[in-house]
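Following up on my earlier message about nicotinamide-adenine-dinucleotide. Here are the inputs again, as you asked, copied directly from the submission form:
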Amino acid sequence: MKILLSDSFDASLPDRLRKFGDVTDDKAQLAEAEVVLIRSATKATAEYIASAPKMKMIIRGGVGLDNVDVPAAEARGVRVFNTAAASSIAVAELAFAFLLAIPSRIIDGHVSMKEGKFLKKELKRTELYGKTLGIVGVGRIGTEVAKRAAAFGMKCVGFDPVVAKHDIVEMTTLDGLCAKADLISFNTPLNDSTKGMVSASLIEKMKNGVVLVNTGRGKIVVEADLAAALESGKVGAYGTDVWESDPPPESSPLLKAKNVYMCPHIGASTKENLLRIGDVIVEILGREYGK
Ligand code: NAD
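Thanks, got it. Here's what our run produced:
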């Protein structure tokens, strides 16, 4: 059996997989591969799947399956797995890093000192303590964000169409969340209900100066609407790990908008998570191939 590692995984993974078969990272061998391991870079479209006649299984190291044409895979009898629970801590820590760094002015302080400025009087910080955090998408990652927020003395309100009650998060409507939250963390997948959800009409319902953090998916945001709200000050700041595409096109208005804090889609890329993803892949193959 040939296993193709089509994206980057922990360096130890190829050796751990050799007991299952021949392991390669040569994408030219796709047509020979029975198992294809991907993260977010490879787009497993219907054409991609059709070009791999021996493929029996796709394993997505990570959560979002928006880069896999699941119906096309299923129609061909190709089974699709992800490593859903592995990444929750890694992504929640990045969301929380934005939630701390933005009001604490850490990035502004760092950048201005690099520019030779000492803005002791100008850089006013705000505390998280006593503030209300809105969590849109109260699943695995949203829950980990809520635990961290609670430890900082924040109140959490949440919106999620399938979560009616939660231990830490007071569940409400999306409009109710927007009215109450000082900061909002978006932790949803990309789907029909979330695509373009952060539009001018939703932003209008938020508090003035609200801080938004997105580690979910870039396409949940209408970029032009958010850029305009950042320019006007309606939205105080936007911290994002996720983009319309990886990397975003130069024309993305968010690249130049005021008070945008950016990461290049590194939410899942902790050393520990890459090892956990590897563990889950070995477990799936062990279960399926009995080794
Ligand atoms: P999860 O399935 O445990 O939680 C997602 C929650 O979002 C679910 O409870 C779902 O009901 C909810 N949801 C769906 N539509 C919604 C809507 N319209 N409004 C509000 N909530 C809605 O998934 P998870 O493990 O918490 O991951 C969430 C997402 O985070 C993934 O789908 C992926 O897009 C993203 N993610 C990003 C990175 C990164 O590198 N930045 C890494 C992993 C996952």
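One observation from looking it over: Residues 62-64, 84, 87-88, 91, 136-142, 159-163, 187-191, 193-194, 215-217, 241-242, 265, 267-268 surround nicotinamide-adenine-dinucleotide (CB under 6 Å). Hope that helps, and feel free to reply on this thread.
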